[in-house]
Amino acid sequence: MTTPQPSDRTSHQLPQPESHEALLQLLARRERELAAARRMSEVFSQHIKLQDLLEQGLHIALDVVSAENGSILLADTDKRTLVFYHSIGQKPVPSGTEVPWHEGIAGTVYRTGVPEIVPDAQTDARHFKKVDEATGAVTHDMITIPLKRWEGDPIGVIQVMNKRGEGVLGPDDLAILTIISALAAAAIEHTRLVEAAKLAEVAQLIGDISHDIKNLLMPIVCGTGILQSEINELQNYIPDSETKRAKASRELCDEVIAMLKDDAHRIHDRVAEIADAVKDASTPLDFSACEVAGIVSNVFRSLGILAREKHVRLLTENLELLPLIVADQRRLYTAFFNLINNAIAEVPADGSVTVCGQPPTVENKIVVSIIDTGRGMPPEVRDRLFTKHAISTKPGGTGLGTKIVKDVVEAHGGTIWVESELGAGTKIHIRLPHAPGESTSRPP
């Protein structure tokens, strides 16, 4: 009888839990992972905006690991910062808040691509305690995980903080967040690609519209020239007794004709600027010496009828004290037009919009402020006004106008910031260098 010999093949067996309790824990974790993946898949199968996608993804992350607070930060490769895109908590971090990606726990995880479990953030020297101070929260336990697909570089990080109840965030929670992170990163990249494709299509469409508008405006420009010639000829047939009255009428007609010509050209330029903003591009600036007072005066002339209809006063203060600056007059006109037009819409009857100038400081920079007596802004709108996540409060608004303003100011090497409270009006400040290329400091 032959004795059975041991097989040359090594027996491959799955690791067995040490006890029945360990098996139940493993099954419970797998169930949570599958539930999280299912919920994430349901969210990401919807046709939603990136901001909504991030918000719902973060809610799921906090729910499945029973955490109190959390944030999603995405990388801004131009500025080398991590930007808070969405935050959940008793007092969330304002969207658009930036932190350097070479600092903090979030920065470490982003740069290394390796997640970290921190049992007590208060004892970790890398923790940004200023964020806690700003939000009024105290971060205890924390998990920070890179936001990336199974393979590839991170595009940001997810942070969850403060486990509810007893215990702290641990390895089981990290396993679930890894799944959420991978699905979220894939969905974010897909959404960005779709949005980029849509923007390219819109930019092409706007380019076609711009060409059509130029053709439609041409008869208006030519017609104003013919009208000007007719008025000049009729002037020769006016009796001497009517000369005084005719002179006043002639001056009014000349002013209206000049306004029509200027605004016809600006309409075409404005469409081109919108196309640039959609494409996230910009035409080169045409620098020359210019007066801010003159630019604002032209804006007031264009918006004067609208302001009168709404019984809103357009005022200036100290603009005559500002020196000549080197700038692109057309682009600055667009920025001031957007801001003043938006302000008029927010001001009740008998209110005012004032453009105020502050002469150069020791840094050789001027500040121009647009101050209105309107209804003001809630914090969530104010804090995101000049960021990539601007919210429009107008029906059908896109927030594109504020992006155009920000692009113009930054193209001149300037800075823009806002002060506003509900019921207390709004102040928007623009700091501009005397000439391009001069450094600027951040707003106070």
Question: How would you describe what is shown here?
Answer:
- It is a single chain.
- This protein has 444 residues and is α+β, with helices and mostly antiparallel strands.
- It has two domains: 176 residues, Beta-Lactamase (2-Layer Sandwich), CATH 3.30.450; 162 residues, Histidine kinase-like ATPase, C-terminal domain (Heat Shock Protein 90, 2-Layer Sandwich), CATH 3.30.565.
- The strands form three sheets. It has a six-stranded antiparallel sheet, sandwiched between helices.
- Strand 5 and strand 6 form a beta hairpin.
- The chain starts with 19 loop residues before the first helix and ends in an 11-residue tail after the last strand.
What does the main sheet amount to? 6 strands, antiparallel
CA(first)-CA(last) distance? 94 Å
Radius of gyration: 30 Å
Number of helices: 10
The percentage helix is: 40-55%
Structural class: alpha+beta
Q: If you consult CATH, what is the topology of the largest domain?
A: Beta-Lactamase
Shape: elongated
What is the H/E order? Answer: HHEEEHEHEEHHEHEEHEEHHEE
Q: Report the count of strand segments.
A: 13
Which CATH architecture of the largest domain? 2-Layer Sandwich
| Content of β-strand | 15-25%
Mean pLDDT: 77
CATH superfamily grouping of the largest domain: GAF domain
CATH class of the largest domain: Alpha Beta
Order of strands across the biggest sheet?
Answer: 3-2-1-6-5-4
**How many structural units, i.e. domains?**
2
Spans where pLDDT lies below 50 across 5 or more residues: 1-14, 439-444
